[in-house]
Design a protein that fits this description.
- It is a single chain.
- By secondary structure, the protein is an alpha/beta fold.
- It has 2 domains: 214 residues, Spore Coat Polysaccharide Biosynthesis Protein SpsA, Chain A, CATH 3.90.550.10; 71 residues.
- The chain contains 13 helices and 9 strands.
- It is globular, with a radius of gyration of 19 Å.
- The relative contact order is 0.13.
């Protein structure tokens, strides 16, 4: 069973090439790499993909920039197989990733989303967990080995703090295609998608087996949005929507956690000193507003 690796791209070309090589270097070679270039301004990119000479690679380039959400939604239109990955264009698949995903999916046919063990790397490829990843580790459900989670328990856990690493997730095609990414979200579109699947009775497999390197660096879109505080308005809106939706399911605990969104508020508070030091008045205003609302 071929695995579809979707690869929405707009960003650092060198990191993109490293990510592509990590996909093509998998032990389990039965995969299809579908690149959806959102019009990145570098005319050498199409030729580089052609030079790979690998018939597992499809390259598509958008005529107009669609933005993150739009490009992710377009990437989903290319799905052909039962297992899907939406790969980050600057992350690294360890060589065992597709092998791990295939085995996990076969062993747990009712699981819809698959989270492997992840190591965090910086822009230079060096390992190192910062505050965000230390908090993710604390928030992650306790246990060892493979755990399959569903219902209000996993919903509450994710609303308390999103400990997933979205680019590392594997998906059942049926689950991701029947939900897709909600329009109007560019920062928390991943959490919204996971929650949509969970709220419809889906389940998530969590495994400790290391299979992916997630790249976190200061130049990322999420980092820039965080210091400016602009991402938090979207987060607050999303949490309030999810609070209403979980309440309708009778998941009262999950709804309370969503309305409180404590970890999101604390994240904003932790960024306030940096905004102050850099004189970012808009950031200070946005961050302060999120902390108190």
């Amino acid at each position: 069973m071929t695995i579809d690796v979707l690869f929405p791209f707009y960003g650092d070309v060198a990191l993109m090439k490293a990510a592509v090589r990590s996909v093509l270097g998998q032990y389990d070679r039965d995969l299809r790499l579908v690149v959806v270039d959102d019009g990145y301004p570098d005319d050498s990119i199409p030729g580089w993909f052609e030079s790979l000479g690998d018939d597992r690679v499809e390259y598509h380039r958008n005529e107009h920039n669609l933005g993150a959400n739009g490009n992710y939604r377009k990437a989903l239109t290319y799905v052909k197989n039962d297992l899907v990955v939406v790969m980050g264009a600057d992350d690294i698949m360890l060589p065992n990733y597709t092998e791990w995903l295939r085995q996990a999916a076969a062993a747990h046919p009712k699981a819809d989303i698959f989270q492997p063990g992840v190591v965090v790397i910086d822009e230079n490829g060096a390992a190192g967990n910062g505050l965000t990843d230390s908090i993710k580790a604390v928030l992650r459900p306790r246990g060892h080995g493979v755990r399959v989670l569903s219902g209000e328990r996993i919903a509450t856990s994710l609303l308390r703090g999103d400990w997933l690493y979205f680019p590392s997730l594997g998906w059942r095609a049926e689950a991701i295609l029947s939900n897709s990414f909600r329009e109007g979200y560019d920062v928390v579109q991943d959490l919204m998608l996971v929650m949509d699947i969970i709220m419809k009775g889906g389940s998530l497999l969590l495994d400790d087996a290391l299979a992916f390197c997630y790249r976190r660096h200061s130049g990322s879109d999420s980092s820039v949005r965080a210091v400016a505080g602009s991402r938090f308005a979207e987060e607050r809106r999303a949490f309030l929507v999810l609070a209403d939706e979980t309440q309708k399911l009778g998941w009262n605990h999950a709804a309370r956690v969503a309305r409180l969104h404590l970890s999101s508020r604390l994240h904003a508070a932790s960024l306030a000193p940096k905004a102050l030091l850099t004189g970012n008045r808009e950031g200070i205003r946005n961050l302060s507003s999120h902390v108190i609302h």
